[in-house]
Design a protein that fits this description.
The protein has about 190 residues and is an all-alpha fold. Helices cover about 65% and strands about 0% of the residues.
Length: about 190
C-alpha cells in the first residue's frame, strides 16, 4: 500500500507553533496532525474557541460533585440504618430470645401445665356442650372437676393454647350442640 502525502498550507507563525507542539509531544508532524484530528473528534471541542472548557478544571469540579454526592449517599444510608434497620434488627433479636426456650427450661409443657390444660378442656366441654350429648361419667365428674379447677393456680402462659383450643371447638361442633362457653368469645375462656 502506498502512502499518499498531502500538504496543508499555513502561515509561518502557525507552522512554527505546530512544529513546537510536535517537539513537545515527541511526535512527527503527520503524527501530531492525526492526534489533533482524533482529539477534536473525541472531545467534540470546537478548535475555533481556544478558551473552551478546561478539561482539568471540569474534571476537578465533577470530582468535587461526586465526593459531595458520595457523602450525602453515605449519610442517607447511615440515617436509614439508624432509624430503621437497627430497630428492626433489635426486634428480630428480641423475638428470637422470646421464642427460644430458656436453656434450663424443660422441652414442652410441664406435668402441671398438661394437667391444667386437661382439666380446663374437660370443664369447657362440660360447660359448652348440651348435657344430653355428654357421657354420664363426665356429668358425674363435673363437681370434682370444678373443685379441682378452683383450687389450682392458673398458668397465664397457657392462655394462648386455651384460646386456640376454644376456637377449634367452636369450629368443630355445630351450633345446635353447643351451649354456654362455646358461644362466648374465644378471648374470654372460663376460669
Amino acid at each position: 500500500m502506498t502512502l499518499k502525502v498531502k500538504t496543508v498550507a499555513t502561515d509561518e507563525p502557525t507552522y512554527d507553533a505546530f512544529r513546537q507542539l510536535a517537539k513537545e509531544y515527541q511526535l512527527s508532524n503527520p503524527e501530531l496532525l492525526a492526534a489533533m484530528v482524533q482529539y477534536f473528534r473525541v472531545t467534540k471541542a470546537d478548535p475555533r474557541q481556544p478558551t473552551g472548557p478546561d478539561l482539568t478544571t471540569l474534571l476537578a469540579k465533577l470530582g468535587g460533585k461526586l465526593d459531595a454526592l458520595d457523602k450525602r449517599t453515605i449519610g442517607f444510608i447511615r440515617e436509614q440504618e439508624k432509624q430503621y434497620l437497627k430497630p428492626i434488627l433489635a426486634q428480630v433479636d428480641a423475638l428470637k430470645v422470646l421464642s427460644s426456650p430458656a436453656p434450663n427450661a424443660p422441652a414442652g409443657l410441664s406435668d402441671a401445665q398438661v394437667r391444667e390444660v386437661g382439666l380446663w378442656f374437660m370443664r369447657v366441654l362440660l360447660l359448652g356442650m348440651r348435657p344430653d350429648l355428654l357421657s354420664p361419667k363426665a356429668v358425674a365428674d363435673e363437681p370434682e372437676l370444678s373443685a379441682a379447677m378452683k383450687g389450682e393456680q392458673q398458668d397465664l402462659t397457657l392462655n394462648p393454647v386455651k384460646s386456640n383450643l376454644l376456637s377449634a371447638l367452636k369450629i368443630a361442633f355445630q351450633p345446635e350442640v353447643r351451649i354456654g362457653v362455646l358461644r362466648d368469645k374465644p378471648s374470654a375462656p372460663p376460669a
